[in-house]
Amino acid sequence: MNKQNKGPLVHIVKRAALPWYGSWGIRALAILLALVACALVTTVTTGENPIAVYAAMIDGAFGTVRKTWITFQNVAILLCISLAVTPAFRMRFWNIGAEGQTLIGCLATASCMILLADKVPNWLLICVMVVAAIVAGAVWGMIPAIFKAKWNTNETLFTLMMNYVATQLVAFFVIYWEVPKGAGKIGIINQSSELGWLPQLGNKYLLSIVVVAIVTVLMYLYLNYSKHGYEIAVVGESERTARYVGIKVEKVIVRTMVVSGAVCGLAGLLLVGGINHTVTTTIVGGRGFTAVMVSWLAKFNPIFMVFTSLLLVFLERGAGEIATDFGLNHSFGDILTGIILFFIIGCEFFINYKISFRKAAGKEE
Amino acid sequence: MKKIIALLMALCMVFALCACGGSQAPAATEAPAAEAPAAEAPAADANPYADVKLGFIFLHDENSTYDLNFMNAAKEACANLGLTEDQYIFRTNIPESEECYEAACELADDGCNIIFADSFGHEDFMIQAAKEFPEVQFCHATGTRAHTEGVANHHNAFAAIYEGRYLAGIAAGMKLNEMIEAGQFTADEAKIGYVGAFTYAEVVSGYTSFFLGARSVCPTATMEVTFTGSWYDETAEKEAANKLIDNGCKLISQHADSMGAPTACETAGVPNVSYNGSTVAACPNTFIVSSRINWAPYYEFVVNAVVNGEEIPADWTGTIATGSVLLTEVNEAAAAAGTAEAIEAAKAQLVAGELHVFDTAAFTVGGETLTSYLADVDTDAAYEADTEVIADGYFHESEFRSAPYFDLQIDGITLLDTKF
Fold this sequence. Notes:
By secondary structure, chain A is mainly alpha-helical. Chain A has helices at 20-46, 50-62, 65-90, 98-115, 122-151, 155-176, 206-225, 227-237, 239-244, 249-276, 287-297, 302-326, 330-352, 361-364, and strands at residues 10-14, 353-357. By secondary structure, chain B is an alpha/beta fold.
């Protein structure tokens, strides 16, 4: 054997920034490979035709007018929560409490609908609901922020724990307001009178979509073109620099989390007042955590988030359709979703780094 | 700025196109589908079920014993009626939220003319959908509102499962007797443990009838009940069963939908009377018997009613006679000798009307025998009691509506926690 010095067979080099077509090419390739991997898994484990499975996924998300609307409504809610966590993330404040902040907004909305329904006119009730939901979310976001700003507590743990507090609060009130007695559920609130139901725009899906579209634009402008947005970016880059240039870091942290929480509260308002008209401990359904992924995948850019949240909702609704069409368990759809996300997240590595192989020894000489 | 607005507008247009595209495509495919049954109409004499399409909404999937029981019944009914695979659709893991309404609407869009849902919390959302699709029948198992809501195409169903529970209770009482005779514990220590989901009338009715069945053969029996606050929580149910066993309970039964309690019993070697179906495969040494509702007779009844143009009642209560209330096979390895015969004897008495589960002579409340009781039959937020349910010496369960409304706390049963 030739004992001469060799470099490693494979080594990893940081890339210079790729042109846009390069990075998107890699992403497209990743999705293609993910689909191939899913096809293999599908054929080997279930014997179903993978093309039919993909067709079912598309059918599940866009098969009928209603399905399409529901898909976009779900995108709107997920996007809203993702937008909410984004300012905090840009500030490097790891808010994983969106689930609780949204849930507390849901609870505030439902409380108003139950307690005030016959006492105030409907327009006033809806105004109170809007304020209550946003304030509740903002307060839920503000508490960990104050602790972070004053005593430098760990915001990841703190926001996470606040989720459980919110869940238990909702559990308590569900039992308190349950109908019938002992049933452990509230059911649709004001089902016959429809008091406190948010008004419909044309159909029952459009309101959430329009509201979130507006929030998306506002959030984009806030983050990129406002003084606040700039301060957030500076605090995120370096707290010391921020202090040096005279930014009050504590104030920025608290203010940003208030914004984060308030947008979550708004999502809660839409979930309860506009869509479900009830509250349960699972009404947010993990979207507070999915939102973290949406936000990261989109590199904290509100416009890209439209696409990443659409992708995740599409995968989720497609998974449900696969279960129905092929009599497979829901978990199978989740496996496919997992494979696809693995490839998509994994490909970021190849965008940032390149792998060089050692050239064959003979040719090198 | 302008670029962003332009981008957004472009996006809106893309969405609009998608939406329009979505609307045209199904219209094109639906049209022939709608014509097809009409074209087959002459041949429909041969198969009256050709136009039937059923949609089923399930809270969980086959891992839940509760939903599995419904899924098996749905398959059985479809097979009995000779329905082909494209004549029924299963939607699993549908939570008790707007998703249930959307699933029901999607099934109606898909051409289903009867839609079934299996979970109590689905009801409000089924009613929403029923109002929107008046030509589709919405049949909801375990619900309470059909008889008061007045939505003509929304129906409730349940079964007189308290009779099944009573029979299962007899098997439990005989097992206790056998263990007392074998000297494992004294007659005073014959305590049963029961894992309930919520303090809801359906659960109260279930454990009370089970207890009355057990006490009818083992007069010294007492019972402790604990609640998990969830219809399906494997860990909580397992822990609840273990807690009861530590408290000195000699036999466990449950009204919650996971395998938590039965597996805890198998591990601890404590006999278990199950619900929703046999757990003998997982618990060969401790499973005695299980009561369950067979939903197939109801499914078949509804389909036949629709095909024959008959009205579906707002409330339908299955009985032993309709084949809706069933007991699984007795596991001879765990049950006391003669259990199957005793169950058969009591069953015959129940069917003949000689025996009533909630006979007021068989139980007391606060030391008193009841002569009158107003139950909360019509669901309202104030829990207002509205209907006299005691007559002819017994509590008339599942007669004024299909879902149980027996919510009395009788003597001999201790509730460990009532927070739910």
